[in-house]
């Protein structure tokens, strides 16, 4: 358990450990929930939405910074996000789950439907990848955890899909991977995965 700095209460937040066998790093579900609670306590509405969108869409922070309201379409129980990425102005469509839809609504979707304006703004204009990194660091400084990067949230999205049994082909399309080899890194079991596996066959409860 980590102690929050200069606050009265403790926030359960396991330290993120890097698995030497993995080339990607992600947060497990407990860590993701703890991160969200941390932002709900210390982050702005915009910042909370950014964390939720990164965890539920897996988009890169540069892609997030380039989002305009016209790229988001929300309906009652579904939604779609158009993401432009890579060379040649490639694009992909990401279905939005309920968590992502609520995040966009909290940012003022209904007042900006179809607008050509950027969604994420900073004090001096459109938010930049560096701005997101600094925002994340600022909130994380409220705890003793400081080594999470925005890209770790993209990895967490992909790992969540793998753990839920989603095929590599679907994950590759959602993440914008050009090769399945990139997607396969999320299939490599972490130490936590191995621990869960052996615990399943334990005779002791």
TrEMBL record:
Transmembrane segments: none annotated. The keyword DNA-binding applies. GO terms for biological process: DNA integration; DNA recombination. The keyword Ribosomal protein does not apply. It holds the Pfam family Phage_integrase. InterPro entries: DNA_brk_join_enz, Integrase-like_cat_sf, Integrase_catalytic, Tyrosine_recombinase_XerCD. GO terms for molecular function: DNA binding. Keywords: DNA integration, DNA recombination, DNA-binding. Residues 22-199 form the Tyr recombinase domain. Belongs to the 'phage' integrase family. This is Tyrosine recombinase XerC.
